[in-house]
Write a structure and sequence with these properties.
Layout (H helix, E strand, L loop, with lengths): L9 H9 L3 H14 L7 H14 L5 H10 L8 H8 L3 H10 L5 H9 L3 H8 L6 H10 L2 H9 L7 H10 L4 H8 L6 H8 L4 H10 L4 H20 L4 H13 L5 H9 L3
C-alpha cells in the first residue's frame, strides 16, 4: 500500500468529517505541518491553513496537539498566537515548540522561564543562539539543572552580569563552577573571581583557556588564602593563634603582605 500523501487534500477533509477520531485528527495535524510551509499557497489558502491550525491547537486530545506541535516546530508560518498556546500547553505538547520554534519571541521565552516549570526551563536553556535576556531569566529564576544546561550550551549568549549571578547562586556547587569555567569565552573579571574559588585542576584550565597568566593566577590565589587566614585569626584563642603563627613562619608563609593585611584590619 503506498504511503499517504504528505500534503492536505480534499480527501483528508472528507475523511475528517466522516470519521473525526483522534487518530485521523493527529494524521491531519501532521500534514498541516507540510501544508502551511508550502510556498505555492496564495494568501487566502495560507489564511485557511492557519485557521485550521488554530482550531487543532484547541483540540481536547493531547495526541492531536502533540502531533501538531511536532510537525510545526520549525514552521516559519506558524501563527504567533498558536506558537504561544502550544508552548504553554502540557509538556508533551510544548517541548517541540520550546526546543525549536523561531516564532516565539524573546519575551515569550522569558515569560515561560519565569512561570517556573523546571522541564520547560531546561528545554529553553538548550535552544540554539539563546539571547542574553533569556539567559539572564534562566540564571535568575530557574532550577539548578536548567542553569547547568545553559552553561553547557556553547551557543548561548550569557552576559557578564548573568555569569557573576550564577557564580553567586552556586558558589558552593563545584560541578556548576566547572561548567562556568569551561564556557567558550569568559570575561576577565569573572575569570579572576573563579581562580580564587575553584580546585587546582580547574585553575589550570582557566590559565590555559582564558588568558590568565600563571603569575596573576598565583597572586590571586595567594591573596585569597591570606584573606581566609586573617579571617580565621579573629575566631582563634591566643594559644591557637601563636601556634598558627609559628607554623606559618616555619613554612615561610608568614609573608609581609599577610602581616600588613592583618594590621590594616586591626588584628
Amino acid at each position: 500500500m503506498p504511503p499517504p500523501p504528505s500534503t492536505l487534500s480534499k480527501a483528508d477533509v472528507d475523511k475528517l468529517l466522516a470519521e473525526p477520531s483522534p487518530s485521523v485528527r493527529a494524521e491531519l495535524a501532521g500534514k498541516l505541518g507540510h501544508e502551511i510551509e508550502d510556498p505555492s499557497l496564495n494568501a487566502k489558502e495560507l489564511e485557511l491553513a492557519q485557521d485550521i491550525v488554530r482550531i487543532m491547537a484547541r483540540d481536547v486530545e493531547s495526541s492531536v496537539r502533540s502531533a501538531l506541535s511536532q510537525n510545526l516546530r520549525s514552521a516559519t508560518r506558524l501563527p504567533h498566537d498558536v506558537a504561544v498556546k502550544l508552548a504553554n500547553d502540557i509538556e508533551s505538547v510544548a517541548m517541540p515548540i520550546l526546543e525549536s520554534s523561531k516564532v516565539l519571541t524573546d519575551a515569550d521565552l522569558v515569560e515561560i522561564v519565569r512561570s517556573g516549570a523546571p522541564t520547560k526551563q531546561e528545554v529553553i536553556a538548550g535552544r540554539q543562539d539563546l539571547p542574553e535576556t533569556v539567559s539572564e531569566a534562566i540564571v535568575s529564576t530557574s532550577s539548578e539543572k536548567a542553569v547547568a544546561k545553559l552553561m553547557d550550551n556553547a551557543t548561548a549568549h550569557i552576559s557578564e552580569k548573568s555569569l557573576n549571578k550564577a557564580v553567586d547562586r552556586f558558589s558552593a556547587n563545584d560541578a556548576m563552577k566547572e561548567k562556568i569555567v569551561k564556557r567558550p569565552v569568559l570575561p576577565p573579571a569573572v575569570t579572576e573571581r573563579l581562580v580564587t574559588m575553584v580546585a587546582e585542576n580547574m585553575r589550570d584550565y582557566l590559565v590555559q583557556h582564558h588568558q590568565v597568566s600563571p603569575s596573576i593566577a598565583s597572586d590571586i590565589v595567594l591573596q585569597s588564602r591570606e584573606r581566609a587566614v586573617v579571617g580565621l585569626t579573629g575566631r582563634s584563642s591566643i594559644e591557637d593563634l601563636e601556634k598558627m603563627i609559628v607554623q606559618m613562619h616555619a613554612s615561610k608563609r608568614l609573608t609581609p603582605s599577610i602581616i600588613f593585611r592583618a594590621l590594616c584590619m586591626g588584628d
